[in-house]
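Sample 3 of the quickstart, ligand protoporphyrin IX containing FE:
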Amino acid sequence: MEEFVFARVLHVLGVVLWIGGVAMVTTVLLPTLARMQSPTEAMLFFENFRRRFAAQARYSTLFVGLSGFYMTYVMDAWSRFLQWQYWWMHTMVLIWLLFTIMLFVFEPRTRKNESTDGTNKNVSSQSFVRIMRMHFVLLTLSLITVAGAVAGSHGWLISGSAS
Ligand code: HEM
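Result:
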């Protein structure tokens, strides 16, 4: 029982660090960079920032994933993935998968390309609009998931009660 609560604590701490960081990037950093005079300089700053954040986010996603699957195993809650009332279980795994692929596959690949052929070739303010849009979609999906997971795991399901 204590291990389960510990897993829940780790899970929520990981989510706070990770999604909190995504929220800050989306609502503060990107809008500030998009207003900078030189898109090339702004992109350079963003890439350095992203690299540091990715290093930290890799640990948070790892903790969130391990603790999440551990809780699912302890509760033997796999059948939730077959019930639409538990849509937030599906979106948790979906978000986790999206970020895991980005952080462990695409981010290292981008870094490798930057170091071989230089960086920021065709940067314009449009590049930031695209990046901001993508972050906004991910943040919205994450916040809806957090709301659904807190409500659902404390008994407030769409059908009206917990099973
Ligand atoms: C591999 C991915 C994940 C798995 C397997 C997973 C699994 C779980 C499980 C089993 C619970 C406990 C549910 C209950 O007590 O009924 C939970 C709670 C929760 N999860 Fe996840 N999760 C994952 C990823 C995420 C992500 C990406 C987020 C954030 C976007 C998230 C946010 C939460 C929140 C906020 C809670 C509720 C904590 C509470 O109020 O006590 N999880 N998760």
